[in-house]
Design goal:
Layout lengths: L1 H29 L4 H26 L7 H16 L4 H23 L5 H19 L4 H7 L11 E3 L2 E3 L4 H24 L1 H11 L1 H6 L4 H27 L9 H14 L6 H16 L5 H16 L3 H34 L1
Antiparallel strand pairs: 1-2
Helix pairs in contact: 1-7, 2-7, 2-8, 2-10, 2-11, 2-12, 3-4, 3-10, 4-10, 7-10, 8-10, 11-12, 11-13, 11-14
Length: about 350
Amino acid sequence: MASRRLRQLRLRTIFLFVLPVAILSLYPRVAEQGYLTYTLIVILAYSIIGFYYNVLLGNVGIPFLGPMVPYAVGGYTAGYLSLNGYNPLIGIVVGSFFAAGSGFAFSLLSNRVRGLYMALYSLVFTLFFHQLIVRSDIPALFHIFVGAIGQNTIPDITLGGFRWRLGDGVAYYYLGILLFVGSAIFLKILLDSRFGVAFKAVRDAEVYAASLGIGIFRVKVIAFLVSSFFIGLSGGFLTIFYQAVGPDILETSNMLLFFSMVVFGGLGTFFGPVVGAFILVPLNNYLTPYGAWRLFAWGLAILFVVLVAPEGAVGKAERLLRGRNIRGLIGSARAWTRTASGTSTS
């Protein structure tokens, strides 16, 4: 029985994850570079953000509204190091560790405040960081923050004998798939480990989890460190891909987009953020020329999901499929009962 369930789980994983990734990998072979390639690269990067933002929002249950901070830290660090002649891959990795450091700062805050106050404090800290960058007229801050804008001297990414040339969309596309697959595998391992169990325990019953000996603060620190690291990884990758980074990376619209991806796909679901990214990133690109109406659209999207499908698109689909399976089992049981009663009568 256990081996059968394991085999079904493997087939489901292949169908839901490996097959779509294989199809995405073949895309550049059958299509020309262009807007669609650019959009898919952004979707892959934003899916990584959604994966690990969902760890905080959905798996641990922390109302965190500051994912733009590790995203910006990773982006600025990668841009700054690359401008100074370092391999962009080194910049991306170092930026990810710096982003994890910003996540550690937020974890200290989460030990002091909870609920609505955590959401407000994280949002205020993000706005402060945004103003620090916008008003960086102090020479040292200007060199760090503004010096990474409009990059045009970043060297090509090299790894062994491979070289990703700037402007080569297909090369960045495959690098995006590589980062996406690695991030997804690590997340799956994390959630299936004892840390994943601790995440859910803290989310569902924090006081009871503490009474069982689970270190609440340690769990939150791990969640913030891991999530911020991968969010910063995505920020660094997109900075090198865009060849630019600026204060707009910390705008509220980005936070609403990240939040909408997770909520629309499904809080606490594994594939939810990916579904949210594939739907909302193209929609965001379409609505960008409309300015403030884009924020209005995000508000409507969040309101619609909360009212119609609070569990998100993936959660709703899983519930419908589960209900269909239950009805199928009930129907099979009734058919077996009729057959058994007919046999006994005869």
